[in-house]
Amino acid sequence: MYGAGVAALSADGVVPLSGVFARNDQWQQRRDWDRALERMTHAFQPVVNVHSGVCFGYEALLRGWENAGFASIADVFDEAFRDGVLYAVELALRDKAIARFARITGCESRKLFYNLDNRFIELPDFQPGGTARVLENHGVPSTALILEVSERHDVDGGRNLERIFAVYRKQGYRLALDDYGVGFSQLRMLYYCEPDIIKMDRFFISGIQHDRKKEMLVGQLVSMAHLMGSTVVAEGVETEDEYFVCKRLGCDLIQGFLVQHPSEDLAALLPRYPEIELLSSRERRHTGSDSALVSARLKTVEPLNVTASLTEAFGYFREHQDTPFVPVVDNAGQPCGLIRESDFKAFAYSLYGRELLRNPSVDHRLQRFIRRCPTVSLWDSVERILEAFSASENRDGLIVVDSMRYVGLLDGLALLEMLNEKNTVAARDQNPLTQMPGNNAIYRHASQAMGCGDRPFVFFYFDFDNFKPFNDIFGFRQGDRAILLFADILRKTLIGRNWFLGHVGGDDFFAAAHGISRDEALDLVRKVTARFCSEITAFYDPESRARGHLEGVDRNGTKRSFPLMTVSIAMLELPPWSISLSFDDVAPVISALKNNAKASGDHLCQASLVGPGCG
């Protein structure tokens, strides 16, 4: 743990609250701030990695304001602002939060998220350096503090926020843009402030699994943030469904009741939340992962620590002359960006380069050379990684992290190799006619679904009725068009992450549904077959359509009439259970269901592994 204990503000040169209030002739009539501050404390809520559940940090949330006589948290700061003591109150509360954070077990590898009221920077008593002294008093490094700012009190079109970002970034702090997406000028803030972290407002996360507009907006905002090298936190994640969508859209960190409620009990705060790791691993089993492709092409360039001197960086490039750039990480191994060898040429090619580095008038901080770099996760898809690289102005490469910690670099050549390999594998697995996943992909997906056994699945097998006489009479090209029609209807109707679609071959198709009810899945499948039966009639000649059947020859050479094409459906429900099965175990069941469906009046046969039955 960092050094514990709360030091008086006056001990580090910060003006005590009593001194500030004494200069305000209205404070006694308005509020006894010393007593109010004594009654307030902080609860902490974890912010965790979306893939591993490892705790990245804790947000300090003000508590005890009711006992101090305030109507809300906002009321605390509004009244302090009216009394002219906002900065002093801010600094005192910051001291209390940092002191409590320093007592959390394992805090040396965690971050503290602390909200700032951006109005204080305009007050006459504001002096940069107060936060640094408070951190030093409690033995907490500046790299552990993440200051959150928002547009909540913006009165000048964002210029105030830009000033705050400039002031605190110069002092070496990480900065987060809070409540992202709800302000009117936050695209401008993203451009000018370049925050290290963006916290997606709860409004966009609540019910995102049922709101396509929210999902689209969050996906775009996450992509934009990543292109600028910012980490994204999804705030207010309360349900597993919200978690899965946030993870799929690329959010790096999550915060909310799904992880843990805010707690004043420091012992209740954990370094890792295994339930989140379990959810993530469960999702990876269902969706697959490109992590093996990414890992195989990582360049494990040794990073520099952000505390390194310019002399050390200069020496690094001299020792690694074939390295044009090097990643920079903080004490927790989390990436800060890149520095380029070319940026040191002013020193490297100067006769007095070393003397310049020793000159005390030169800014010796490594941070002046750090360039932002897009960061991707080891668990991101190849497509998402390629999108981040192609949209970035930085052509050096991408930083790859696992659980927010640096693991390596990817350059453009590595990305092209990964994409080519993935496309080659996908092409082998696709049906050449419909470009849908073929037998290998179907078998793999179905086996993974049955092997996990932790949530229900429904399998559907589709087989055309009377396809052969249609194909014999109108030719294989028209037969292919009928197959393509069904594939198109299937894709347009059964869309979203709840469905897997495959083409077994010929006129046989496969679909698997999860995350939706059995009845809802069956209703959508019926819509597919109904639409196909309606549209396929246009593929027949006018005489056959008028008769309602086709005149042809059966397998035995006998002339007979064939009804127009329909589709039979075999439906197998797999409720959650503890026994792992292979797809080979149920393939005979599906085949029997298909035969029964063709013989039934409604062309449907359904069963469950816990109680087979035909309907």
Describe this structure in words.
With 615 residues, this protein is α/β, with parallel strands linked by helices. It has three domains: 15-282, Alpha-Beta Barrel (TIM Barrel); 295-419, Roll (CBS-domain), CATH 3.10.580.10; 435-608, Reverse transcriptase/Diguanylate cyclase domain (Alpha-Beta Plaits, 2-Layer Sandwich), CATH 3.30.70.270. Helices cover 41% and strands 20% of the residues. The chain is built from 24 helices and 21 strands. An eight-stranded mixed beta barrel has the order 1-2-3-4-5-6-7-8, surrounded by four helices. Strands 16-17-15-20-21 form a five-stranded mixed β-sheet, sandwiched between helices. It has a three-stranded mixed β-sheet with strand order 9-10-11. A hairpin with a 2-residue loop joins β13 (398-402) and β14. Residues 3-29 and 611-615 have low confidence and may be disordered.
Outline the low-pLDDT stretches.
3-29, 611-615
- The share of residues in helices is 40-55%
Number of distinct beta strands? 21
**Protein structure class:** alpha/beta
Instruction: Give the count of structural domains.
Output: 3
Report how far the terminal alpha carbons are from each other: 65 Å
β-sheet strand percentage: 15-25%
Mean pLDDT: 82
Spatial order of the strands forming the largest sheet? 1-2-3-4-5-6-7-8
Using only C-alpha atoms, the radius of gyration works out to 31 Å
SSE inventory with pairings:
Elements: H1 17-22, H2 27-30, H3 33-38, E1 41-49, E2 55-63, H4 73-83, H5 86-101, E3 111-115, H6 130-137, E4 145-149, H7 159-170, E5 174-180, H8 186-193, E6 197-200, H9 202-205, H10 212-227, E7 231-235, H11 240-249, E8 253-255, H12 274-287, H13 291-296, E9 304-305, H14 310-319, E10 325-329, E11 335-340, H15 345-348, H16 353-358, E12 375-377, H17 382-391, E13 398-402, E14 405-410, H18 412-429, H19 439-452, E15 457-465, H20 467-474, H21 476-493, E16 499-505, E17 508-514, H22 518-535, H23 542-547, E18 549-553, E19 559-563, E20 566-574, H24 583-599, E21 604-608
Parallel strand pairs: 2-3, 3-4, 4-5, 5-6, 6-7, 7-8, 9-10, 12-13, 20-21
Antiparallel strand pairs: 1-2, 1-8, 10-11, 13-14, 15-17, 15-20, 16-17, 18-19
